[in-house]
Fold these 4 entries.
Entry 1:
Amino acid sequence: MVETELPGQGVVFWPVGTGDSTTIVVGDNLVMQVDLRDMKAADEDDAVVAAVIDRLEETLPRPDGTTPYLAVFALTHADSDHCCGFGDLLESSILIGEIWATPRLWRELSEDKPMCEDAQRFQDEVERRVDATLKAIKDGKEPPSGDRVRIIGYDEDRKLHSYAELPDEYFTFPGDVITKIDGQDVEDRFEAFVHAPFKDHCAGDRNDTSLALQVQLKASDGTVGRLLFLGDLAYPIIKMIFENSEAAGNSDRVEWDVLLSPHHCSKKAMYADGEDGEEELKQDLLDLLQAHASPDARVIASSLPFREKDEKGNNPPHLLARDAYASITDYEVLCTGEYPSKEEPRPVVFALEPGLGLELVDVADLENKARRMWEAAGGGRRLLAALGASRYPATAFAAGAGLPHPRGTDAARAGVQQARGDKAEPAVQIGFGAA
């Protein structure tokens, strides 16, 4: 599995099979991880899934010069395909400044519902942070980085659980905007608008309590890139998110440039039972998604490669969902399991370019930039596999990914490159500087 650098500001969707692992680079040494799937299969020689924790250890910023620093880890919900490897993350050299958690796990524990080992490790860590925060407050102090926690969402059983003792500033609810990461005010470059989980669904299925966010990344010139994360939500709640946002005058909070397709490109996002009990396409949701998409909007399927056809009972990804998304955007859905090829998938990386927005970064661009950094530093730092660029030249890359000819911001980006020449440094910083 080839390595990759992180963009100076942007997002990385790691190939992890059918599961989620998304890294958001806010900038200025601040990186956020939304969900994690790091499997033992990633250690095999012929792996087609990423060893996410290893990649983070190698590429995260090190503000103190030694410790890889992850400012925030946010868990959408506690299914194993969203938290696999969290115990290994805790045991790694990475410092997690702050954790964002929903109340769902406390309810599951109180109801004695089974959960995977990594979900239990996550809950234990959140409980530790709640205790550490309460102790710090009692001592008249702020909890330090590494002990911070944020509870997102409301549960009717809140008074029964330990987190209920936290002061109000440690809670965030649907309709709230987060502009602080691990104690730092980042409003000038980051906002996370919370859409869900809703109070009314606190006792529902685990997927229905998924954390849903619109993340805005802001470049220094004011350019904004919008990411939409909907966890494993299905049609009824996704529709509610859009309708509630429009009714509240927050329609800008469901605008998107990049959408991580809900539940790994599951058809349940836009198919549901009709009046006759038969499954039908819900065009109303597709219309809402299309109405709030930017002209160059892209959809990501974090999943295994698509099958040749859908059959009843198949888990996602679903061709029906892929085709539905393709009908509302001008680009094909990018599947992490087959990008740019099924045999050797690579991370899907978008960089926030001033004046342009979130731009899909060619693998060769990342590799060439990383190589120049490595040479300038005199070597000694693991960056990208040296054979990557020769194995996937830019022309082969575009063809393998099934991408259309440049248009919109892609065409603008090509114009910028033509104007400045091929040897000029790109506008977007890749990585965090010299080793």
Entry 2:
Amino acid sequence: MKIAVSACLLGVECRYDGAAKPCEEVLALGEEHVLIPVCPETDGGIRAPHPPNEIATFERALRVMDAEGADNTDAFLAGAQKTLERVREEDCTLAIFKAKSPSCGNGRIYDGTFTGRLVPGYGVAARLLRSEGIRVLDEQQVRVCLAVSAARHPGMPAALLAEASSECPTLSTERLVLRPFVEDDIQDVFAYCSDPDVGPDAGWAPHRTLEDARFFIEEIASAPHVFGVFERVADGGCGPCVGSIGLIGDPQRRNVDCLMLGYALAKQAWGHGYMTEASREVIRYGFEELGLSLITCTHYAFNDRSARVIKKCGFEYEGVLHAVEASPDGILQDAALYRLTAEAWRRGR
């Protein structure tokens, strides 16, 4: 993976005070990934050292001022644009930026009074990258995600950096094993995906041939954070595959810190609480190991079974999106929308 990183986190002396702020955890990622150093302030023509800058968060229009009263908004905007161009050129989908910075801050920044007060907000470059679909995390958020992944899956790559399902860890619950699909699962997948009582409720047509199941495994379920659901056997290994579950992009939201929970379950496994059990583990995975701030979920208005799972997992009902898409029979369906924030999930735990 190519990751854009604030240059100061890599040891480059480009902070306002002429110093660097190297982060050991981020530097270590360079052993397995390509780290692309960026500095929006340098790109905007602001040379270190220089007076500290802050965004005037008490104003509606963007204004970046330094401690001596100079307006540097244009320079910050120019630097953010150049950083975006570099990130696009390198095909980065993730950026690790310096926390609290007026350029790179992600979620919390200084408020513009130069009193050390932090408020919710984003730096100029961070907000531009996020608006273009590039995920931004600061070094503190990355440190937490890496630590959780290392503790839960020793020796495995961090889930945050997975680019395919094959790079994701195996998850487990009391009765289930959640792991990436492999070619040997095609028969099991076809068995439940060909059932006309399974696919249409989730929005896809029943599989007609083994090649449909192969396409699902190789093209759809190969995306990161998609897992097969397997019954756990006595020795802790995998029994038969009874479904699939994953975190995928929510087509209704432009929020890079949000993924949508989706799932399907074989009919013979209905009524055992399996999908609620699997969903709770995947939700934990999303908040703790991926650092998401929001997980969403939807179901067609007629799908009462899915509604029960979603409510048991603590999601908050948001409303109905009418005629959102056509089901396999061509009929436009309404969808019930739900959300679960990281804050609400932690309170519920």
Entry 3:
Amino acid sequence: MRLRRLCAVAVLALLGTAPLPANAAEISCQDVYTPVSFGLTQQTVYGRLCVPQGATSVQVLVPGATYTSAYWDIPVQPDVRSVRLAMNHAGIATMAVDRVGTGRSSKPLSLLVTVPSQAEAVHQVVQRMRGQFQKVFMGGHSLGSVVAIVEAATYHDVDGVLITGMTNQWDYVKALPTIISSIPVTLDPQLARLGLDPGYLTTTPGSRYASFHKPGALNPAVVDYDESTKDVFATAELVTTPLMVNLVIPASRNITAPVMSIQTTSDYFCGTPPLGSDCSSSEALAASERPFYSHAPRVDALVLTGYGHCFNFAPDSDRYHEAVVAWQRSL
């Protein structure tokens, strides 16, 4: 018996794995493909649905530009960085999707891929989840947050909206270098093989630390993973994003569900209003953003420090996971 135990430990060590947590066996994950109307076309949205035993609520999670559903389940120290794992361990199901045009979702002409069309597609995923869960929450990061805002404001079919890496007030001085450094996917040595039209954009090779992680500590494993799994976004998504949250009447004013905004002080969206929201404290952020959610019954906020735009990769991102769980349980 002792020899058998030693052999098992040796095999785990060789495979580079660790024993699963006690409740891991209670979580079931599956790939889900949802046919959706997308403007005047028919497309397919891929999602990874993970359900802990007994879950009655689900988060539909939308990633940002150049990311896929994998953003919500980072494998580098997943106990700290994986939103999916944190939510599942808290008894909350997750449905992390690839935006149309990315990952395993279908890839139409880039001109068709706008924020409103993405919101229409995600709405149909939300409706599918409504048939399985008592409560459906919407969560997004960056561009994905804009999609979440427009979906919730248009269809009023979610029980809460989680907004990360996006506010209704931008510091364009911080944001422009990342935006203008994007290149057509056809020029990228890693992604040109996808055969997408040049209206799809991605980040220049080797730029992701400066764009998405700085001033966080340079962790080679994290940055290498991020570079190796980068994806695309459509020019039309980029053009329609500020129209939805910044330059005209914000769509957020039509949201009628509770809102949680989580930002980091080093991001493009924090500063001195109107050039960025006030991220001097969590209370200040809530007060700064609340006027843009005038019909939401509640606006909560959390401010993080020490990391850049994509703070799912931060070595202490479990702090914000705990805040999300507490917020959702309070509703």
Entry 4:
Amino acid sequence: MKKYTFNQLSLIQYILIIFETQVGIGVLSLPRDLAIAAGTDGWISIVLGSILSTLVSLVVIRIMNKNPESTLFELLSQYFGTMAGKSIYVLWILYTAYAASVVLFSTVNIVKLWIVPDIKESILMILFIIPIYIITKHGIRVIGHFAELVFIISLWMPFLLLYALKDTHWLFLLPIGKEGLSPILSTVKPTVLSFLGFELAFILFPFLKDKKSASKGIIIGNSLSMIVFVIVTVICFVRFSPDEIKDYAYPTLNLLKLIQLPFLERLEIIFLSVYLFTLFMTIIPYLYTAVLGVSELFGKQDHRNMLRIVMCLWLCSSFFFVPSSSQINQMGKSWGTAGAYFAYMFPIFLWIYGWIFHPTRKAQKQ
């Protein structure tokens, strides 16, 4: 990773990239998903999902600590050989490119529904891919700085949601565990998928200046995501009735519609306009991982050519493929299914394989 030393990340940037990649769409839609599956006990599933994602995150860091100067591509080639390593890496590239695409199409759909219903999707796509391209083309260092900027300009948002506690019914949460343990445990699966983003530690770790703090950083990132998810979910649960919340695709935005200020209307539009930066911070790390992966695959140091190709594909697709809300929902589910394999099962498999493989490799060298 010596060729990337000028693009190093600070610990704060590392934490914020993971945190902002995770929250994204989940902040808007997770309360409804949990309410449908587990009722108002869904917030407990968030805590359990956070614990599971943190444990797997530490597995990722443990793997990378054994190979601190290797990229994921180099690591896979060392473990599985050139051909098998490239094949697995191609699957990783496809996964991250698909994740970025799903979030982008979801963002276009949300903005069209809530802010500008009469505008064409292709226009929104152009407006979105311009800042995404500008930030991504400059590499991980600029992405880290952008993550810091997004965090600063988003600090007011939690306080705005707390304002919605004015007319709440805390009895909606009682009794805790009223649906039993089974719904809570069954809801852990969609909850852990809301924490997708920590798997990018495979890519971020080599760029991190203080690699000894990688475990601490990823724990903090997951914990921040858990706190945000719990706060948003609980506020939605106590503001809407258990049946009412199921009717809203994005309960957080419906919650903001209820906030009335004497000097401001349509607060959800202002919120969503600023929240676009956070949604971009879900798209950009996945996109950068995909284009960087293709560049490594072909031995190129410049990822910008591949980035331009992806931008053109996204723009062209907006003229021929306009997914409906139900199609976007299905795309999100398929991303979640892929994420279960790449973010949760893959690190565990790689750790077990490396635990067996390393002694064998050392013995061969000796």
